[in-house]
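Service request form, structural biology core

Requester: graduate student, group of Dr. S.
Request type: structure prediction, single chain
Budget code: on file
Notes: please return the result as structure tokens.

Sequence provided:
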Amino acid sequence: MPAEFTGEQKLRIVLESIIRGVPRDEQCKKYGITPEQFQTWHDHLIKNGGSIYEQAGSNVGRISSQAKKIRTRKVKYVPWYIKLLLILSVFSNLAAGIVWAVWNWSVQGVELGPMVDAEPSISQIEVTDDNTSSVKDIAKQPPELDDLIEQVDQFGKLSDDGIENGLESPDLGKNSKANLEEMLAPALKLPEPPSSLELGNRVDFIDQTYEAKHVVYLIDVGSYQLKGPNGVERLESMKLSVLESLTKLSANSYFNLVLCWNLRESHALGKTILRANDENKRYATEWITSLGTSPKLLKEGRNQFYPKELLYAQILPGVVGPWYGLATAMSYDPDIVFFLAGNMPDFSPDEVSRNDYNGLGINLDANSLASPQSAGVGQGLNSLIRKTAGYWLVALQSERNLPDNAEEIEEIALKRLGIDSSLPGLSLQKHSIPWEKAFDNFLAGLELGIAKIPQVHVFQTLQEHTRWPTSLQKSMAEFCESTRGNLSVFP
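Core staff response, request fulfilled:
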């Protein structure tokens, strides 16, 4: 666009904004002019535009010619179904006129006069036989303004030669298409939304983000979880962590919820992996929130969905404790497993079936440290074992992290060693689990290849001064590391 604009160009810019409803700022940006220039041209047109109607209408013939062009152009774009309706309307009116004329002639005997088509033309222009025209219902306008209005209306629709319907553009010419592209503002490029695959591969858990699409949440809900001064708080924190992760799962993800306890007990939300839609999330949320904060309510809440007898996973005998829960979770073929594990070796013997010990090589009838011949010998042996265990724990761990009472230190040491001090002779009935054997049975029962083993993250939820047996702790840490996961303490 040149630096100086002609009067016709200024008029076209202002008319284009008025006719097409283009905002002032957009029009100024399009033609490289300032808002003050545009406003000056606009005000000049509004103030002095009325003078064009006071000029002599000596060029009525040209107005008629332009009107014919407008009429021709408008008829060109009439849809075919409108044309059909018009033709039918004309024929129906003609037939009605003929019937009315025949009836009038037969009744009154009056001679028919010439029929006049009273239908007004589209442009409201009447054309006579000698090619002269008279304009009706339209104010007379100078031909220059008509030419300019038609050019504005045709702006951007001209062909490569700048000619359409007999109208030639003096400005655009053969480069009209290129000039039009230069004047149009570039379209805004919207940012591409993240794909559903990217959303489905994200799992958030305890302030960490993991890449996985199939996830299994495994929660230890044994009654031993409520032991200790902060047992209820630990259980509630576990439930809250799983609920926060569940609500953030994408609808393109899959999940399942497995609850386990004692040696070989488990329930699951479904037999297969479930889509993370709102309905399945609601079932999981209701199940987690129903877990009570007392042993009785906890037992009632965890037995609501599919028990181990109805699941497809058939875990080999001898796979017990944390390994049984992991084997159940891995049977769903997930990408990642989050295991909130408690002190499973501290199970209650009266809650465990004798069949759960199968495959471990345990003789339950002879499972004791001592068989005292008398009460005095037994009491002396118990006292010696307790003191020895207490000295061992103090030497192993700093006294600053232990209670001040010597009896409490001995109790912690006996639990660390897997010894039950509540039974006569310090029975090992509920703690003498060969965890190395259980781990070997777990590995033997895996049907997955090395590449298909999911990523396993184990979070230990233990009461203060409590640890897993060394063999179980070591084997679990090695397994988590081999799966690109980790073993950590929660919270």
